[in-house]
């Protein structure tokens, strides 16, 4: 039975008046972009302590007001004074420095909202480079860090994992590149593979049985193709055709799919389009020109579609995509802005969840707080962006919502589940 972990009750409670638009972090591996979401505002939910049959909840009460005093720091580069030391390795200079600074702020906010748990965060700058990540992780471990949170970029994750693995310390990293996951190196991020699984599952459960795909010849296309093939087969559906294309030149691939996706005799009932917001308008225009009718064949995609300027494209009307539920991030963004005076980038919630998870596990699991068996509990953990679960191979599963595009907007047609399905289903 999973234990429901929540922050201690806050002394001051008030409703937040500020609701910010969701900024969606999507893109290829380690190439985040900031976009807005048309999803509804967050709903308040009450935290519960030790509630049975629920994943541990890392989020504070929705109406909690963050403290205005900075988190206690015993020395530069440290947040908190607790006995349990954890490293936060992010870029504070070099590539990604603005993201790293926001993630450091989010870590501080998490510590404040947990009312200073028995935790000490050793903040280390990886300089946006592998050598810096390796040095930062090694130095923090030498100072007593039991766990490394970060880095953000794939090459830096690989570098930081070397000293961590040698010391027997786990890593919870923020990269979206699944290739850097490994036993002991877990990815707390928005993996496109989870989005593919969710949109295929929702399509099949709604009666869709025959899938085709147009996939760009780039890193993102490579990341999703294998997962798409596996998900369709696992759900017992039929794959009638896949075509790859050079970004910006989708017409030949559309022509090769021919009668599979156009005309009265089209064999597919669903078309997978894992294209970015930059490339999708041209692909959509080419599909419309070729006679593609979304009323007959439903287009589906991933969170890279979560961009309002795409919602008016004729070829996407009635299309669906999987993405994190907007509610949790909207609430977090309001608290972040109230505390730091600026809107957070989408990845900031990952650092918040990582620190909240660390605090919850340190409080509940004693010496087994960061053991592999603890981190990979099948019930998972409930954070800002919904329920997530680490797998033994280092990848993660995440509960995602499904949105439908109609009339220049995207609305939820299948809410993110509160609990994750059994692994492999």
Termini Cα gap: 20 Å
SSE succession: EEEEHEHEHEEHEHEHEHEEHHHEEEEE
**Number of separate helices:** 10
CATH topology (fold) name of the largest domain: Rossmann fold
Any idea of the CATH class of the largest domain? Answer: Alpha Beta
Inertia-based shape: elongated
User: Which value, in Å, is the CA radius of gyration?
Assistant: 22 Å
User: What's the architecture of the largest domain, going by CATH?
Assistant: 3-Layer(aba) Sandwich
Task: List the SSEs and their pairings.
Blueprint (H helix, E strand, L loop, with lengths): L22 E4 L6 E4 L41 E2 L4 E7 L6 H17 L5 E7 L4 H13 L5 E2 L4 H14 L3 E3 L11 E3 L4 H14 L4 E7 L2 H16 L3 E8 L5 H7 L12 E3 L7 H10 L8 E4 L18 E4 L2 H15 L7 H17 L7 H4 L5 E3 L2 E5 L5 E3 L2 E6 L2 E6 L11
Parallel strand pairs: 4-5, 4-6, 6-7, 7-8, 9-10, 9-11, 11-12, 12-13
Antiparallel strand pairs: 1-2, 3-5, 13-17, 14-15, 15-16, 17-18
Helix pairs in contact: 1-9, 2-3, 4-5
Descriptive notes:
This is Penicillin-binding protein activator LpoA. Pfam families: Peripla_BP_6. Belongs to the leucine-binding protein family. It is a single chain. The protein is of the alpha/beta class and 425 residues long. The protein folds into two domains: 237 residues, 3-Layer(aba) Sandwich (Rossmann fold); 144 residues, Response regulator (Rossmann fold, 3-Layer(aba) Sandwich). The protein is built from ten helices and 18 strands. The chain has a seven-stranded mixed sheet, with helices on both faces. Helix 2 packs parallel to helix 3 and helix 4 runs parallel beside helix 5. The chain is elongated and about 70 Å long. It starts with 22 loop residues before the first strand and ends in an 11-residue tail after the last strand. 53% of the residues are buried. The N terminus is likely disordered.
């Amino acid at each position: 039975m999973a234990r429901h972990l929540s922050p201690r009750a806050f002394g001051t409670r008030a409703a937040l008046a500020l609701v910010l638009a969701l900024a969606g972090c999507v893109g290829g591996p380690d190439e985040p972009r900031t976009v807005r979401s048309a999803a509804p505002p967050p709903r308040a939910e009450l935290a519960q302590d030790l509630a049975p049959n629920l994943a541990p909840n890392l989020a504070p009460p929705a109406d909690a007001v963050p403290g205005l005093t900075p988190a206690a720091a015993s020395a530069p580069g440290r947040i908190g004074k607790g006995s349990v030391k954890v490293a936060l390795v992010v870029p504070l200079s070099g590539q990604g420095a603005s993201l790293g600074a926001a993630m450091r702020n989010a870590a501080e906010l998490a510590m404040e909202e947990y009312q200073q748990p028995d935790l000490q965060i050793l903040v280390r700058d990886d300089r946006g480079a592998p050598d810096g990540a390796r040095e930062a992780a090694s130095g923090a471990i030498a100072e007593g860090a039991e766990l490394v949170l970060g880095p953000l970029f794939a090459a830096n994750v690989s570098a930081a994992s070397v000293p961590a693995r040698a010391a027997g310390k786990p890593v919870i990293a923020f990269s979206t590149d699944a290739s850097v996951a490994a036993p002991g190196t877990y990815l707390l991020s928005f993996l496109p593979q989870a989005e593919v699984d969710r949109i295929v599952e929702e399509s099949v459960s709604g009666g869709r049985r025959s899938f085709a795909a147009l996939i760009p010849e780039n890193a993102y296309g490579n990341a999703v193709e294998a997962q798409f093939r596996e998900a369709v087969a696992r759900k017992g559906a039929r794959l009638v055709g896949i075509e790859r294309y050079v970004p910006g030149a989708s017409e030949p691939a559309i022509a090769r799919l021919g009668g599979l996706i156009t005309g009265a005799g089209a064999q597919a009932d669903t078309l997978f389009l894992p294209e970015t917001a930059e490339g999708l308008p041209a692909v959509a225009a080419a599909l419309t020109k070729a006679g593609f009718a979304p009323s007959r064949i439903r287009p589906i995609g991933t969170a890279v579609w979560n961009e309002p300027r795409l919602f008016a494209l004729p070829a996407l009307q009635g299309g669906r995509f999987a993405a994190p539920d907007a509610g949790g991030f909207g609430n977090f963004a309001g608290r972040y802005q109230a505390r730091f005076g600026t809107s957070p980038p989408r990845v900031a919630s990952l650092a918040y969840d990582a620190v909240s998870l660390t605090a919850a596990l340190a409080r509940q699991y004693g010496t087994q707080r960061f053991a592999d068996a603890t981190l990979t509990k099948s019930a998972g953990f409930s954070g800002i962006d919904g329920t997530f679960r680490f797998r033994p191979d280092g990848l993660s599963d995440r509960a995602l919502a499904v949105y439908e595009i109609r009339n220049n907007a995207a609305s939820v047609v299948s809410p993110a589940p509160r609990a994750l399905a059994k692994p492999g289903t």
